[in-house]
Amino acid sequence: MVNFKNSADGTVEQALVSKGVTDKNVLYALRIVPREKFVEEPLKELSYTGAPLPIGHNQTISGIYTVALMTQSLCLNKSHKILEIGTGSGYQAAILSTLCTSVFTIERIRDLSLKARDILGKLNIHNVTFIIGDGTIGFKEYAPYDRIIVTACSPDVPEALFAQLSEGGIMVIPLEMSGSQNIFVIEKKNGKMYSNNIAPANFVRLIGKNGFKS
Ligand code: SAM
Which residues line ligand 1 (CB under 6 A)? Predict the structure, then answer.
């Protein structure tokens, strides 16, 4: 596991680069979004460690390397409209907000969504729309999305989410198969799904109509 001392001394960035995170825009986003604001008071010192940290309600903020890798794998540009499933602390949404025009983020636990909305407001981030509900059915109202990122582990790619992905779009999603989790990059080409397993993962479960039942 990578241990990052703090965000200011360059240790974080060097460790990420050595693990293959080289996209300059992603590294910039990680530099300017203060991760410690999304971490509970007693754990702030651990903000830049590689591990997921508890955020209440038995949920976690993903480790910084996981956030960096998944964000880089989305191959974002400024014009993209993104759907995130699993707002959690709001940190991933804040990172995405600096890299593209609009972000829609869905969280099933009301308290987490409200808290994340409050933190992003204080950071002056205004291009994120917060939705409370079951992200496994997506959010048709603003579909299609150029990119979709799922930050909880699913038993398979929810059909509704693939349907709401633009042609040529990319979805990054952790999937659990035979008891182990891996992050997959899914591409939609001529309506067909192409998938690539990029890394092992350690996520909480995606719970909902098209996810796990508990
Ligand atoms: N992206 C988050 C962050 O930056 O802190 C980390 C997400 S946490 C690992 C996974 C989140 O997914 C949890 O907050 C959990 O409540 C949420 N979740 C699980 N199933 C969901 C569903 N069906 N719809 C929306 N959110 C869901």
Answer: 59-62, 85-86, 88-89, 91-92, 106-109, 112, 134-136, 151-152, 203-204, 206-208, 211
How confident is residue 91, by pLDDT bands cut at 50, 70 and 90?
very high
Q: What is the CATH number of the domain that holds 35?
A: 3.40.50.150
Q: Which domain holds residue 138?
A: 6-200
Residue 206 belongs to some domain of the structure: no
Contact 67/95 with Cβ under 8 angstroms? Answer: yes
Q: How far from 32 is each of 29, 36, 99, 156, 189, CA to CA, in Å?
A: 5, 12, 11, 34, 34
Do the domain assignments include residue 205? no
Is 211 a domain residue? Answer: no
Chain segment 122-153, per-residue pLDDT in tens: 999 999 999 999 999 999 999 999 999 999 99
Exactly one of 7, 18, 47, 62 is catalytic; name it.
62
